[in-house]
Amino acid sequence: MTRYQDDIDAIQALKAAAGSPWNAIDPESAARMRAQNRFRTGLEIAQYTADIMRRDMEEYDADSSLYTQSLGVWHGFIGQQKLISIKKHLKSTNKRYLYLSGWMVAALRSEFGPLPDQSMHEKTAVPALIEELYTFLRQADARELDLLFTRLDAARAAGDETAAEFIQSQIDDYETHVVPIIADIDAGFGNPEATYLLAKKMIEAGACAIQIENQVSDEKQCGHQDGKVTVPHEDFIAKLNAVRYAFLELGIDNGVIVARTDSLGAGLTQKLAVTQEPGDLGDQYNAFLDVEEISEAELGNGDVIIKRDGRLLRPRRLASNLYQFRPGTGEERVVLDCITSLRNGADLLWIETEKPHVDQIADMVDAIRAEIPNAKLVYNNSPSFNWTLNFRQQVYDLLAEQGEDVSGYDRGALMSVEYDDTELARLADEKIRTFQRDGSARAGIFHHLITLPTYHTAALSTDDLAKGYFGDEGMLAYVKGVQRREIRGGIATVKHQNMAGSDLGDNHKEYFAGDAALKAGGQHNTMNQFS
């Protein structure tokens, strides 16, 4: 027996018990609707996907080639089409997630209009997007199963038992489009209570993994912008605890917390850490401050002083009332941040770097793993990096180190198209191709994501269409560049009425009204041109 058949039998029993008022109810139709609505709440999704992530983390610990990936998406439709494409081309969603980028929520989802990634957008936009994404993924399930049910009915009508059994097996073994979402909560949008409240909304919408960063909430900057300000560890730990309490309250006991550190690029702190004794966590944080030793006589009005080893140290304070760290301490601070986060409830780490360099990441991870051997990363394969220039320069430096002749290249101009067909460019492209594999093997990267790729693809594809359509190509720009490619590539959106639920709705109408149903998919529906 299968779940599908079990549901048919259960509804048949309900129908028998209800008697004649249920005469019009078809148990198999109701069972189909149940199959098409597997997840009834966001919490069911959060638990289902948390189990997936925990399994994937264990598998990665045993074999680093089993890393996971995602692309950032900013709309439910984009997330849906991504998962449809994955199932079509790769046959399974295994190890593929979605990423919800705070950057894209700010830039594309705020009622204020486009905003920079500085936590100025409405915090409610984050759980709203999670809910929207899962609505579209569940609709993808309903649509795909509806197509299978239609094929099953056709096979039965034709008396083809072999085909009917095969289609039934596809229904019984159906793989959902619902996958884990790693969701960006920025720096928590306020104090720990605000973080807890927002985390609850995100989990209730379906998020099984929440990423939080160690910046000051009201001074939050994009990870690839200047002016980042971190908080002392105790402040960040309070927010890690807030997220964990939200998971526990809602019964998602294995929810995943991703602790992000921006310390590599953050040279400022808003306040000094509280310290009780030499060498404690607060003292370690303060030890990275840029200070000058002074005498008591040199104390100025309003000076803040640290006493260490009998010396009076005055931290360098800016006009903004922020304190600065000593230059060159970023990697040490990152390592301390990561170890501290893992010891205080985080499950995964995120180290925001200024370039994609496996050895740099690995050096920090090696130091972290000396304390916590199974430490692993979520890593941002960021569009803010110039991947072409970075990797061509890495190859240039490697060739020079090996004694190869690089005199034919200008290291500062390696982005130039004139180098595209060179051996150096080919070596660089190969390093880009294998970056995720290499990073997972060498640098402990469990999950690779691109934060805002679909922001760029939307702009690029729109530019291509607008350039041709409003130029000499006219309608051919759409036909050749979009529709013809959809037809020949088997892109489901070519039947946009079906994708929007037209056929699904027709079948429901038939369940509800039988032969009296007024359906949209008849012979005059122009979508039939794409059959």
TrEMBL record:
Substrate binds at residues 101-103, 223-224, 260, 380-384, 451. Keywords: Lyase, Magnesium, Metal-binding. Gene3D superfamilies: Phosphoenolpyruvate-binding domains. Pfam families: ICL (PF00463). Its cofactor is Mg(2+). The keyword S-adenosyl-L-methionine does not apply. It comes from the Bacteria. Can also use Mn(2+) ion. Mg(2+) binds at residue 184. The active site is at 222 (proton acceptor). GO terms for biological process: carboxylic acid metabolic process. InterPro entries: ICL/PEPM (IPR039556), Isocitrate_lyase (IPR006254), Pyrv/PenolPyrv_kinase-like_dom (IPR015813), Pyrv_kinase-like_dom_sf (IPR040442). This is Isocitrase. Signal peptide: none annotated. It comes from Microbacterium azadirachtae. It catalyses: D-threo-isocitrate = glyoxylate + succinate. GO terms for molecular function: isocitrate lyase activity; metal ion binding.
